[in-house]
Write a structure and sequence with these properties.
Length: 153
């Protein structure tokens, strides 16, 4: 009878060790990731301005270029090469109308923006037929100014 208790005890101990190891491995994987806000306070404030200025449009924040660009090539290798030029880029805001047409890409530039890189991004977007509008974070336009600029497109 004592052999049965020892065997059962060993099985329970092995089970506990396996669960502990599994949980410690999962916690290491889980700790590699943490949440972050979709927009900074500054970006959210500007998002609210856009929503107020453009009630006839949908405003999408933080949109991957891959959501509105695709590689224009038939060869898989060339298509992959082109995709790598934009797949990790994010537009601050995309203005979208009720007919599912992109009206403009909006960028809110702060001191971290690189003018030369921005020119390349804007050219890439323009080649696909989209217009990029850039606003300076320190000199954000009023609600009326935003509406006037977008309505001129």
């Amino acid at each position: 009878m004592s052999i049965i208790f020892v065997t059962a005890g060993l099985l329970v101990l092995i089970f506990i060790v396996i669960i502990t190891i599994k949980n410690s491995n999962n916690s290491n994987v889980d700790s590699q990731y943490k949440s972050k806000a979709l927009m900074s306070d500054n970006e959210f404030e500007f998002f609210q301005r856009l929503v107020q200025a453009l009630p006839q449009y949908y405003i999408f924040p933080q949109v991957s270029f891959g959501a509105f660009l695709q590689a224009n090539a038939s060869d898989f290798k060339e298509k992959s090469r082109i995709r790598l030029t934009f797949c990790q880029k994010i537009a601050d805001y995309v203005i979208y109308d009720k007919d599912k047409k992109i009206i403009a890409i909006i960028e809110l530039d702060d001191k971290m923006h690189d003018i030369e890189k921005d020119k390349k991004r804007d050219a890439m977007v323009a080649k696909a037929g989209y217009k990029t509008i850039r606003f300076q974070s320190k000199r954000k336009p009023s609600i009326n100014e935003i509406a006037n600029i977008i309505n001129q497109i």
